[in-house]
Amino acid sequence: MNIIKILKKTVIDSQIYVSLMGTLFAVFFMKEQNTFRFPTILLIFITYFSGYIYTKYQYTKYFFRILVLNAIAGISCAFLIIHNHNEVRLLKWFIIVVLGLLYNSFFLDVYIRKIPLLKVFYVGLVWALVNCWLTLPEFSPPIFLISFFYITALVLPFDIRDMNSDTVKTFPMMIGIQNTKYIAYGLVFISSLIGVFYLKPLYALAFFLSSIITYIFIYFSENKRDDTYFSFGVETCSALPFLFLLIMEYF
Questions:
Q1: What does the pLDDT look like over 131-141, one tens digit per residue?
Q2: What Rg do the C-alpha atoms of the chain give, in angstroms?
Q3: Residue 89 · residue 81 · CB < 8 Å
Q4: Which of 209, 160, 167 shows the shortest CA–CA distance to 188?
């Protein structure tokens, strides 16, 4: 039990885990599009990690340390892009970072997280832009839609978890847990359907299998469940396409 608590504190609560899951989700599409590069993977991980710790700790006593860490992360990302890519990639990255700041920042009177029902779609938007725009020479509508619907669906269980503590109206609070699950099911279905028609066969199969597991996690999502179910279980669903791909490629 102590090992589980240590892992939760050092890996999950530190935002390392969610950043890794987001990065592996991007890697799945990078491999499918033959744009796999280690500097890009590092860029995505640093961007996710710095963004999530900023969101979590900006109102705490660690605020100054977080600002310093984010400044270092920003300089590192800029260096990675300039050294390995071009100014267009730098502009794309900067726009995505700004969108992340608009989600939840102490210096804004009104930010996206305060707007009822918008949060789930906004998270899906930012993750989708990383997959379909930042890592590719040109914007890819199919990858955008696959990513957007899938990640939006994965955010809804977190709203179910937080429905008794959220101060902003969310889908579970307005239409109930079961109807929220129906929306999530529909989003995953649309995402997997697009994946079947657009992705290469092996990648489409990996994504389809991931969707089945995601359905199961959505089905058992309840606000009384332990936080680990969501922060580890549901969060892992974003990495499942890549993990299933590895299994099919190497085993």
A1: 999 999 999 99
A2: 18
A3: yes
A4: 209
